[in-house]
Amino acid sequence: MKRKIALLLVTVLGSAGIAAAADAAATWAANCASCHAKDGSGNTMMGKKLGVKDYTKDQSFSDAEATNAIKNGKDKMKGFGSKLSDADIKALVAYVRSLKK
Ligand code: HEC
Predict the structure, then answer these.
(1) Assigned domain for 55 exists
(2) What is the DSSP letter of 78?
(3) Choice from 34, 36, 48, 67 to test ligand 1 binding pocket (greatest atom count within 8 A of CB)
(4) Domain span including residue 69
């Protein structure tokens, strides 16, 4: 029984990093994927209409530019600064980077 609890603790603590990534994935799916697509390719109706770039191939923006775009908006993309915390935005930038193949 004790062993089981210890194991459970290890699992919970060990997955904290993964949980943050999963959060960013969920935020992305809920707020960004309608334009940028789940995989970041921009292959959606909205994405094509607005000229969203394919982030699986090209990420010419810096972390600071990405942060600024997410916070304050860029072109037809509105800012999410009022909706997302700085930590959320930071996690999203890292998530976007992970979408590049
Ligand atoms: C209404 C459609 C739309 C939504 C929703 C949207 N974007 Fe964008 N996004 C755009 C457009 C249009 C651009 C400008 C063209 C480009 O760079 O692909 C852009 C640009 C970007 C850039 C590049 C910034 C730069 O300086 O080049 C990043 C990073 C980005 N979006 C991330 C996100 C994230 C993260 C979310 C969700 C929180 C999101 N976008 C939601 C349409 C959208």
Answers:
(1) yes
(2) E
(3) 36
(4) 17-98
pTM for the model stands at 0.86
Distance 29 CA to ligand 1 centre (A): 13
Provide the number of structural domains found in the chain.
Answer: 1
Overall average pLDDT of the 27-31 stretch: 96
Does the residue 80 lie in any domain? yes
For residue 35, the Cα-to-chain-centroid distance in whole angstroms is 13
Mean pLDDT (the chain) is 88
Tokens 């809920």 — which residue?
A: 30
Instruction: Give, using CA atoms, the residue closest to atom 32 of ligand 1.
Output: 70
The model's confidence at residue 81, banded by pLDDT at 50, 70 and 90, is: very high
**10 domain-assigned:** no
Cβ distance 35 to 77 under 8 Å?
yes
Length of the chain: 101
